[in-house]
Design a protein that fits this description.
46% of the residues lie in helices and 13% in strands. It is an alpha/beta fold and 284 residues long. Strand 5 and strand 6 form a beta hairpin. The longest helix has 26 residues. The radius of gyration is 18 Å and the shape is globular.
Length: 284
């Protein structure tokens, strides 16, 4: 199988997204490539390495450096307000330690969208790689910048943060762009729904200037649950193909246990293999 008709939609979830890395490794092993890919947060990172045709890069980044303070440090969170070392992850790693193939990525004809949240409006923005060029990594960083553990990113006159706040699973964006067949990779089992977060009262104190961000945080669980209801409906109608874990992945958003990360990666690969026949039928 080569380039197929349809779109690939990738959910985020922090280091839980290594499950998606396993699924995409299987796709690349089988030569399954989509002409349209859209990702959120860690899903956007997975999308980048999928489009650059680097099947092992996400696994390497997500396991080799998790115990490196440059990558993840609670001390840095308390001192600098940043749990993950964003400059290390989105500059040092892709440009030096685990090189990202910018040439292949940019020359690939695949449309690759990254979802971010505009802190002023609270709404989702969708950036395609061709319009970003050299600024791609900055927007990718923004898509992965979670409130309270990362800093907002300034880009093109806007203040941006995690795309999952406004559109955690951008299936409607894909459909609006004309994609009739959509394959979704989710990182939560069927039936999962978000609860109203407890920290909302702190949002106005932490981000007094960003009313849109406060609104996005307050509505995040509602938007997510509505998206899951919509996806369940589409799946029942046979209009989407969903790959997701059969049970909850035992991996935290900031997981440091390498054994758990490897198991989640292998689970993704195994699940993709299990659904391969059905996926081929759906795409034909």
């Amino acid at each position: 199988m080569d380039v197929v008709k349809g779109a690939l939609v990738l959910e985020g979830g922090g280091l839980r997204g290594i499950y998606t890395s396993g699924v995409l490794r299987f796709f690349m092993d089988k030569g399954i490539f989509f002409p349209y890919v859209i990702g959120v947060s860690m899903g956007a990172c997975n999308a980048a390495n999928y489009v650059s045709r680097q099947p092992e890069r996400n696994r390497i980044v997500s396991t080799r450096y998790v115990n490196d303070a440059r990558y993840l440090s609670y001390c840095r969170l308390f001192i600098q307000g940043e749990l993950f070392g964003m400059k290390f992850i989105f500059d040092t790693l892709p440009r030096s330690l685990v090189p990202f193939d910018f040439t292949t990525f940019m020359e690939n004809d695949v449309k690759c969208f990254t979802v971010v949240t505009d802190c002023e409006t609270g709404e989702a923005l969708y950036y395609e790689k061709k319009e970003l060029g050299e600024d791609y990594l900055k927007v990718l960083q923004a898509s992965n910048s979670l409130p309270f553990i990362a800093k907002p990113v300034q880009y093109n006159g806007r203040i941006l943060m995690d795309g999952g706040l406004s559109d955690a699973v951008p299936i409607k964006k894909s459909i609006d762009d004309g994609n009739e067949k959509n394959v979704l990779i989710l990182t939560r089992p069927k039936g999962y729904r978000k609860k109203r977060p407890r920290f909302l009262r702190f949002a106005s104190l932490r981000y007094p200037r960003y009313k849109g961000l406060q609104k996005a945080l307050a509505r995040r669980h509602t938007r997510y649950n509505e998206a899951m209801d919509f996806i369940d409906q589409l799946e029942h109608q046979g209009r989407v193909f969903v790959i997701r874990p059969h049970f909850a992945i035992n991996v935290g958003r900031a997981e440091r246990n390498k054994d758990k990360l490897y198991r989640a990666y292998d689970q993704g690969y195994s699940d993709a293999s299990e659904w391969y026949t059905g996926l081929c039928s759906f795409l034909q």
